[in-house]
Write a structure and sequence with these properties.
Length: about 90
């Protein structure tokens, strides 16, 4: 199950940190990935229904999701995520 509150706490924490903060992986990216949990279907549902802020936050962990869930289902979900990300951020 995705810990949505913890996920959004990582977004808030990232906004508070300096752009060159040296421990982003330890203090933001790893907790963000952990907040997504271990249920592939829940993560995919979360990604498929992400708003723009969530799409931006997922950018930092989508490679790790592909490594953690090396399935065709996740590959297709990542493709949809990237399409949605580009729609949201590319003008």
């Amino acid at each position: 199950m995705v810990d949505i509150e913890r996920f959004y706490e990582t977004i808030k924490k990232r906004k508070e940190l300096d752009l060159n903060y040296p421990w982003l992986e330890r203090d933001v990216w790893t907790p963000r990935l952990e907040a997504l949990g271990d249920d592939e279907d829940d993560i995919i549902d979360f990604m498929d229904n992400a708003d723009k802020e969530t799409l931006g936050a997922l950018w930092s962990v989508y490679d790790e999701l592909m490594d953690k869930f090396p399935s065709e289902k996740m590959d297709k979900a990542i493709d949809r995520y990237l399409e949605n990300y580009h729609k949201a951020f590319d003008k």
